[in-house]
Each structure stands twice: as C-alpha cells, then as structure tokens.
C-alpha cells in the first residue's frame, strides 16, 4: 500500500514539474523585445522612450510590420514567445540594428525639416516612422546621403502635400468668426429638418442578401434594398433613448447635433455620433493617400454638417444599407441567429469562434482589467463603430458601397476589430508576465 502511495506521489511530482517547465518554456514578448532593443544602444534613442524601451509606435509601425513580421512568422506573434524561438526573435532585431539606427537618424532629420517648414499638423511618429525606415533601407543613414536635407524635404512635401484640404485649413475655417455664424445656422437647420422615410420596407430581404453575398451577391436585391430605403428605416430607432448608445455609437442617451470643434487626436476620438465636425473629418485629412479625393475645406465642412443630420449620420443610402446589414450580421457574434452555412453571418461567426484569444479572454480571472474582457463581450458595438468609420470614409472619398464589395467590407471590418483586440490582450498579458501591476 505504501509502495503504491509512494509511486503516486512520484507521478504527481513529475506532472507538477512538467507543468512548471512548460510555463518556463515561454518568455514575455515585450520583455524580449526590450532586451534586444537595449543592445542597439544610443543609436536608436529617437525611437525609444525615457526608459530606453522602444516606443509603442516603434513596435506598432516598425518592429512588428517591418522587422518581426508576425503574420509571416507566427512564432513571434504570441504574447509569450516559446523558449525555442527566443534567440530567433532577438537575432532578428539585432540584425536589423543598422537599419533601425539609420531610421532613427532620418527621423531626426525629418523633424528638423518639419520645424523649418513650419508644419504642425499630424503626429510625426505616425507620419514619418515607416517613411524613415524606407529611407534607411534605400539610402542608409542621412550621413550617407549628401542631399539628405533635400530628400527629407521631398518626403515632407509628399506626406503633407499642399494640394487639397488640410487639418490646419479646416481648423482655421471652422474657427474663423466670419464663418462660424453661417456654419452654426447650417447645423441647426439640418438637424431641425430631419424626417422619417416613407412606408416601411420588408426587413426580411436584408437577411436574404446576407445569405448569398460572400459568393454570389444579388445586385438586384441590393439595389432594391437601397431603393426601398432599408438603410434609412433601419436608423429610425437610433433616435429613441438608449438605442444608439446600445449600438456603441454614442455615450449619450440620444444623439445630439455635433459642435464645430477645433482640435482632434487619433488616440482619443469619441464614438462616431459624439464627434465634432473637425473630428469627423480629421482622419481623412491626415491621410496623404486620400486627401486628393476630398473637396476643398468649405464644401467639405458644409457636406459634413448635412451628413451629420442624416440617417446613421451618413449621406448615401447604399452606405446606410451597409450599416443595417452589418448590424444584423454582427448580432451573431454575441449569440444572435447565425443564418445559413456559407452566408455572411455564419462566416463572421465562424471567424470569431476560431479566435483563440477570444476563449482566453473569457477565461481570464477577475484580476484582469475589465477592458480586456469588455473587448470580447462588446464585439458587436466595436464592429458597428468600425463599420461606420469605414463607410463614412468611403463617402468622403466618393468610393461607393456596392453589392459585390459588401462582403469584403463586412469581413474586413471584423478582421480589423480582431487585430485591435488581439493586440490589446497581448499587451495586457505582456504586462502581467513582466510583473507590472494592472
């Protein structure tokens, strides 16, 4: 009997030792990156924070997409890196040291040229980090380029092209006393003139379109949804107390007319229906790729004032239909009906269900910040917010929502939401592994 008990204790001890070794076989990704980064020395200081670690934007804009490339190297993607991959991750960053040092040097040159040119719009890290990496890869450091100042000026001219509207012009226009009175009157008139659409359409056809849109979108059915104002009718309930808030589109009980505003920041934009006119236009104006498609500032502001009073606070009925379709499809992410296999709703739910981080977040203890679990529980609201932003951006660029592009839009929004939430969870786990307090 004692012999059997002793054998059982030995087996339990072996199991415990195996579990401990498994836990030790992974190291926090953030800690590994910081250690490898520290080995690069002062040459990368412009890309580092006060503690000598890479800035969050350095990781997001340079290390992840350009050096570690976790999409192509899944072994570098998790919050904890398997022990067998630790040296490979460190070696990847160390090998990129010369290019990263040149990137940092170019960033200083671009900032100096930016000050000389009197440019104040946009965050320099967001705008220049990846461009500096490109310059470093093509030209080496600025010391290796005898025309470094001209090269930097050319990059700034491309990023801050003076053709088309800019944030500075937008801010000047909406704060100019000569325009404020007119713009406020336009806002009041637009919101006072809202009316409900005509007879309510048959809502069943939205589900019919979702069932076929991933592989064989019915263009005639989509056109019928647009003609029957299904999108506008789907927004009527948003004016009832608490409905738009439950959709994640506002923090207010009922949506209110926007203010004109004067400032905006990508890191702290309010929910879509709570944004000022400046905040609604900010993202489009900070993208050099999209600016050429926009109207001049006065027309852009007047159109946005009118748009803010429309159904879903959008102007095009096709975009409004996209919001209704997205709302119905996203309900499946939180337990709503899935619909037929192969349809948009079922495919979105399948993509969501196979995400390992979703299951992990739901199992996490209560000591984890509420925001980490709230991302998963609030996926429908996050999805609708992201979909609104995508559709609104298309309207600004005159890029129409079409039947054959609808599935790519709906699927792309969920992919984007998943990537954002996965990054938040990974950061939380890295802080936990490093012993940082929540």
Report a brief summary of the structure.
The protein contains 21 helices and two strands.
Plain-language structure description:
The chain is mainly α. The protein has two domains: 26-160, no CATH class; 194-257 and 309-433, no CATH class. It contains 21 helices and two strands. The protein has helices at residues 2-24, 29-38, 56-68, 83-95, 97-117, 124-139, 148-159, 167-175, 177-192, 204-212, 219-227, 230-234, 243-246, 277-285, 297-308, 317-330, 344-353, 356-363, 370-377, 379-397, 403-433, and strands at residues 26-28, 80-82. The protein has a two-stranded antiparallel sheet. Helix 14 (277-285) crosses helix 15 (297-308). The longest helix is centred in the C-terminal third of the chain and has 31 residues, at 403-433. It starts with a helix and ends in a 5-residue tail after the last helix.
Number of strands: 2
Along the chain, the helix and strand elements come as HEHHEHHHHHHHHHHHHHHHHHH
Class inferred from helices and paired strands = mainly alpha
Mean pLDDT: 85
Enumerate the spans where pLDDT stays under 50 for 5 or more consecutive residues: 1-24
Global morphology? globular
Oligomer kind = single chain
Q: Whole-Å distance between the termini? A: 48 Å
Q: Give the number of domains.
A: 2
Helix percent band: 55-70%
User: Number of DSSP helices?
Assistant: 21
Largest sheet: 2 strands, antiparallel
Query: What spatial order of strands do you see in the largest sheet?
Result: 1-2
Output the keywords.
single chain; 438 residues; mainly alpha; 2 domains; two-stranded antiparallel sheet; globular; disordered N terminus
């Amino acid at each position: 009997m004692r012999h059997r008990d002793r054998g059982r204790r030995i087996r339990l001890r072996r199991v415990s030792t195996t579990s401990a070794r498994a836990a030790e076989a992974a190291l926090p990704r953030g800690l590994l990156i910081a250690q490898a980064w520290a080995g690069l020395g002062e040459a990368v200081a412009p890309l580092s924070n006060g503690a000598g670690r890479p800035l969050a934007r350095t990781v997001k804009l340079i290390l992840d997409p350009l050096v570690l490339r976790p999409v192509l190297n899944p072994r570098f993607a998790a919050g904890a890196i398997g022990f067998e991959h630790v040296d490979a991750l460190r070696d990847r960053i160390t090998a990129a040291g010369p290019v990263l040092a040149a990137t940092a040097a170019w960033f200083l040159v671009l900032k100096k040229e930016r000050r000389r040119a009197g440019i104040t719009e946009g965050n320099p890290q967001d705008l220049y980090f990846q461009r500096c990496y490109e310059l470093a890869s093509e030209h080496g450091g600025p010391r290796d380029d005898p025309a470094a100042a001209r090269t930097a000026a050319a990059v700034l001219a491309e990023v801050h092209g003076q053709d088309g509207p800019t944030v500075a012009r937008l801010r000047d226009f909406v704060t100019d006393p000569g325009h404020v009175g007119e713009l406020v009157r336009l806002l009041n008139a637009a919101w006072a003139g809202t009316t409900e659409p005509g007879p309510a359409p048959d809502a069943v056809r939205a589900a019919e379109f979702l069932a076929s849109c991933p592989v064989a979108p019915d263009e005639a059915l989509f056109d019928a949804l647009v003609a029957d104002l299904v999108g506008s009718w789907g927004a009527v309930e948003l004016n009832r107390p608490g409905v738009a808030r439950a959709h994640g589109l506002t923090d207010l009980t009922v949506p209110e007319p926007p203010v004109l505003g004067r400032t905006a920041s990508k890191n702290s934009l309010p929910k879509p229906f709570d944004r000022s006119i400046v905040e609604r236009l900010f993202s489009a104006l900070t993208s050099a790729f999209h600016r050429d498609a926009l109207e001049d500032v006065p027309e852009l502001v007047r159109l946005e004032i009118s748009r803010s009073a429309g159904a879903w606070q959008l102007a095009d009925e096709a975009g409004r239909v996209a919001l209704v379709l997205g709302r119905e499809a996203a309900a499946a992410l939180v337990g709503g009906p899935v619909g037929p296999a192969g349809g948009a709703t079922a495919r979105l739910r399948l993509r969501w269900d196979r995400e390992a981080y979703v299951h992990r977040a739901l199992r996490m203890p209560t000591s984890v910040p509420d925001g980490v679990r709230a991302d998963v529980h609030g996926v429908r609201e996050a999805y609708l917010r992201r979909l609104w932003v995508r559709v609104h951006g298309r309207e600004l660029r005159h890029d129409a929502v079409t039947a054959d592009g609808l599935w790519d839009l709906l699927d792309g929004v969920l992919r984007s939401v998943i990537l954002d939430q996965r990054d938040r969870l990974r950061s939380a786990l890295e802080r936990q592994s490093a012993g940082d307090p929540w």
